Amino acid sequence: MKRIILFLITNIAVMVVLSIVTSVLGLNQMLAANGLNPGALLVWSAVVGFTGAIISLLMSKSIAKWSTGAQVIDAPRNESETWLLSTVKKLADKAGIRMPEVAVYEGEPNAFATGAFRNSALVAVSTGLLGSMSREEIEAVLGHEVAHVSNGDMVTLTLIQGVVNTFVVFLSRVVAFFVDRIIFRTERGTGPGYFITMIVAQIVLGVLASIIVAWFSRRREFHADAGSAQYLGTPQPMINALSRLGGLPPGELPKSLTGFGITDKAGIMALFATHPPIEERIRALQARR
């Protein structure tokens, strides 16, 4: 319920801020005088901006299972699966959330958590991670993913994505409108310049929006690492797990899930990385000891 209220407040706040800014700058009158209704555009931008993000969130578990081939453990078939279920249950109890679905998928070392609701989530680990880490390290990784669920990170990131989407949709059309009127001198309706500028502006603003979302995602990782350290009573297992991951090739996740994994590639695309460098995460954990 709190998340729904947060969503509504955020949505309203975005529209109010944009409305105030356009009014203070005199854009409302200017746009209205030239045939563009800023209020209607703002509402439409919010609907478009949030709709895709919300739909993706609601479908996240199904998409995750389909795209990774993750198999949910309904009834443990061996001692390893029994341990995996009991460990996630223990961590979920410590986090104060309901037991999430637990799944295993074929792939290089990685793990992820997803789901629209904190009490109806999915935690999945790869066979590569299970085969390359000790149980203490696996537990630390599971704690990291449970912390994502407990912190409501999936919903938070969806809200942020919806906010930036709203700005992108709104601003790209305002910029296109002015370019069409001032540069291409279209006097009535909208000309080709409007549509060309809108597409270009939406691409450019979309790239900038991705950088903002990625920055927020990197901040979440430090909180999830700290959550794992809290659940296990010490940061050392998470430090060990990160150190091991630093020496292993990270498993690829579908684009929609990269923000909810345990590691990510950075390289020259560091601004778009959903995870901070492993070295920084280890230093943050070491500072907790």
Would you mind describing this structure in some detail?
This protein has 289 residues and is α+β, with helices and mostly antiparallel strands. It has one domain (1-64, 143-289). It has helices at residues 2-24, 27-33, 38-58, 60-68, 79-95, 127-132, 135-150, 153-182, 192-232, 236-246, 278-286; strands at 71-72, 101-105, 111-117, 120-126. Strands 1-2-4-3 form a four-stranded mixed sheet, sandwiched between helices. α1 runs parallel beside α8 (153-182). The chain starts with a helix and ends with a helix. Mean pLDDT is 83; it is low at 249-260.
How many strand elements? 4
Order of helices and strands: HHHHEHEEEHHHHHH
User: What oligomeric state do these chains adopt?
Assistant: single chain
In order across it, which strands form the biggest sheet?
A: 1-2-4-3
Number of domains: 1
Short description:
This protein is 66% helix and 7% strand. The protein has 289 residues and is α+β, with helices and mostly antiparallel strands.
